[in-house]
Amino acid sequence: VGSHVMLSNNTPAVVVGVQPDSIDRPIVRVVQRTSVGPTMGLTVHLADFARNELWISQPIDPPSDLMAIA
Length: 70
Description:
This protein is mostly beta strands and about 70 residues long. The chain has no helices and five strands. A five-stranded antiparallel beta sheet has the order 4-3-2-1-5, with no helix packed on it. A hairpin with a 2-residue loop joins strand 3 and strand 4. The chain is globular and about 35 Å long.
């Protein structure tokens, strides 16, 4: 929880939770860029998607301007 990741659709997200029965398919919050800076967007349960439809592709460093809202 708290890890910054890149999703398979090139969307940055933050891991916000895990489900005990599918720890490899966490709950993430999408990071959206807006004119006033980054904001936390939709919550996505990766377990709701097929494994070949949406997944975490890699860990990423948190953007410095996101640290205040993560």
